[in-house]
TrEMBL record, chain A:
WD repeats (start-end): 16-55, 70-102, 114-155, 159-190, 209-240, 312-351
Gene: LOC104703131
InterPro entries: CIAO1/Cia1, WD40/YVTN_repeat-like_dom_sf, WD40_PAC1, WD40_repeat_CS, WD40_repeat_dom_sf, WD40_rpt
HAMAP family: ciao1
Main function: Essential component of the cytosolic iron-sulfur (Fe/S) protein assembly machinery. Required for the maturation of extramitochondrial Fe/S proteins.
UniProt KW keywords: Repeat, WD repeat
Protein name: Probable cytosolic iron-sulfur protein assembly protein CIAO1 homolog
Coiled-coil region(s): none
PROSITE patterns, per database record: WD_REPEATS_1 (PS00678), WD_REPEATS_2 (PS50082), WD_REPEATS_REGION (PS50294)
Superkingdom, natural source: Eukaryota
Similarity remark: Belongs to the WD repeat CIA1 family.
SUPFAM superfamilies (UniProt xref): WD40 repeat-like
From TrEMBL, chain B:
Primary gene name: LOC104701448
Lineage top rank: taxon: Eukaryota
Gene3D superfamilies found in the cross-reference section: 6.10.250.1280, Fe-S cluster assembly (FSCA)
A Pfam family the protein falls into: FeS_assembly_P
Protein family per UniProt: Belongs to the MIP18 family.
Residue intervals of the MIP18 family-like domain: 39-107
Upper lineage: Eukaryota, Viridiplantae, Streptophyta, Embryophyta, Tracheophyta
Protein name as catalogued: Protein AE7
Alphabetical keyword list: Chromosome partition
Keyword Lipid biosynthesis belongs to the record: no
């Protein structure tokens, strides 16, 4: 199925209002989607210091705010991430802490608060099995936390090799390899040789490896984990790849290399990029637009991405985050913006 | 007496007479006037320098020409010239300009702030900080910094 040939558009399904300040991030609960017979659930976090949980009614198909997680973080909540089981939500805040919330029916309770960072926590990510949590901060460090019994979290590593503010951390989708990106313009890869929790920086993707020339804001992997996309203040998207089979079978680390750069498509900072399960890359940028890219399969040398569509004025202000839903085939996209809104979109064929 | 100021003897330029606006061309009262260079300069000219009882206009930190505006595309760029090459107040000044414009311009506006090329020892570092909105947002959650900015933004009693 060649997506480029279909006449596709991004249709706004619903606008979710409620936050009283800019919305920084959204995260889909990995477990719920209509396919599972469970209503899809989305979390959003904001400069209003709260997290909102939104649920879609299976009857009316409309989204409502189920709960507001408030009175815990005392400053902006910058990002949030659901655990792989969907039972826990981690929230990263400018107040320097990371909250862990558990869903008890219709309520959420903060069951743990992770402290340690010296200043604003920017991002939080769970590994594939839910045994590790990673956080990063303006204090330039990346912390890895071990998830223990009884709501206990223990700091397993403090990794201080970035030279500036770390913007995002993201675990590889299948392996316990951690990736971080920073205001220092680089992406770093952290790996534990003996899987004993001793992580070290095994690779830095910087300008000399065809890397970005300004702050890298986000990282996203494709479903198989052999490719990743990064986005930057340098207004480009970069695609990177590795030999995942070799990496998964062997004992040694297999480096990532630059595959292609998408430049000339964005004229403001790109804050977010997300790779869908069916290979569409979505980007959210400072020009209020959402763009979708697909591999045209034109090139024999590797991936060659083309713009599938551009949604101008997707929001009234900067798009801070774009996230594809986890369900198979529904092609739902959630976006968060400085305009205080969360929007749900659907990729559909033009009538 | 040592005052500890970074720039003890700033050059204060003579005040320019303010041009009166005489817009007779647009007679339709419902069409909003396009925002122009002078309007944006009017928002920032009276911002007080963090160290001296003078405005950014007095010290020629900003001038009318330091404002580049494209109203059709909702874009503005302000280039400011710190009084000294090693001025550590540069980021504060830049932050004040940004905050004043955020509070004064329509939300559709994209605002870029930079130091005049060649006017500051760490110009790239200053520019990067001033244009990283996440850093700006975090800085503006710091009550001490907000107090300092608000002081600079207070209209002076003249």
């Amino acid at each position: 199925m060649d997506l480029m040939e279909k006449n596709l558009e991004l249709v706004e399904i619903q606008k979710l209002e409620g936050h009283t300040d800019r919305v920084w991030s959204v995260a889909w609960n990995p477990v719920s989607s209509h396919a599972d017979g469970v209503s899809p659930v989305l979390a959003s976090c904001s400069g209003d210091n709260t997290v909102r949980i939104w649920e879609q009614s299976s009857l009316s198909r409309s989204w409502t705010c189920k709960t507001v997680l408030e009175e815990t973080h005392t400053r902006t909540v910058r990002s949030c991430a659901w655990s792989p089981s969907g039972e826990l939500l981690a929230t990263a805040s400018f107040d320097g802490t990371t909250g862990i919330w558990k869903n008890y029916g219709s309520d959420f309770e903060c069951i743990a608060t992770l402290e340690g960072h010296e200043n604003e926590v920017k991002s939080v990510s769970w590994n594939a099995s839910g045994s590790y949590l990673a956080t990063c901060s303006r204090d330039k460090s990346v912390w890895i936390w071990e998830v223990l019994e009884g709501n206990e979290y223990e700091c397993a590593a403090v990794l201080s090799e970035h030279t500036q503010d770390v913007k995002m951390v993201q675990w590889h989708p299948t392996m316990d390899v951690l990736f971080s990106c920073s205001y220092d313009d680089t992406i770093k890869v952290w790996w534990s040789q003996d899987c004993d929790g001793e992580f070290e920086c095994v690779q830095t993707l910087g300008e000399s490896n065809n890397g970005h020339s300004s702050t890298v804001w986000a990282i996203s992997f494709n479903a198989t984990g052999d490719k990743m996309v990064t986005c930057s203040d340098d207004r480009t998207l970069k695609i990177w790849g590795t030999d995942i089979a070799r990496m998964q079978s062997g004992e040694e680390y297999v480096p990532w290399s630059h595959l292609c750069t998408l430049s000339g498509y964005h004229d403001r900072t790109i804050y977010s990029a997300h790779w869908s399960r069916d290979d569409i890359i979505a980007s959210g940028a400072g020009d209020d637009a959402i763009r979708l890219f697909v591999d045209s399969h034109d090139s024999v040398d590797g991936p060659s991405y083309n713009l599938l569509l551009k949604k101008n004025k997707a929001h009234d202000n900067d798009v801070n985050c774009v996230q594809w839903s986890r369900g198979e085939g529904d092609r739902l996209l959630a976006s968060a913006s400085d305009d205080g809104m969360v929007k749900i979109w659907q990729v559909a064929t033009k009538p | 007496m040592v005052s500890g100021l970074i720039n003890e003897n700033p050059i204060i330029y003579p005040k320019k007479e303010r041009r009166l606006r005489t817009d007779s061309s647009n007679t339709d009262e419902f069409t909003p006037e396009p925002i122009d260079q002078l309007e944006i300069f009017d928002h920032i000219r009276d911002i007080k320098d963090p160290e001296h009882p003078n405005t950014l206009e007095d010290l020629r930190v900003v001038t009318e020409d330091s404002v580049e505006v494209d109203d059709d595309n909702s874009y503005v760029r302000v280039t400011f010239t710190p009084t000294m090459e090693h001025c550590s107040m540069a980021t504060i000044i830049g932050l004040c300009v940004r905050v004043k414009l955020l509070r004064s311009l329509p939300a559709r506006y994209k605002i870029d702030i930079r130091v005049a090329p060649g006017s500051h020892a760490t110009e790239d570092a200053v520019n990067k900080q001033l244009n990283d909105k996440e850093r700006v947002a975090a800085a503006l959650e710091n009550p001490n910094l907000v107090e300092m900015v608000d002081e600079c933004l207070l209209p002076s009693a003249e």
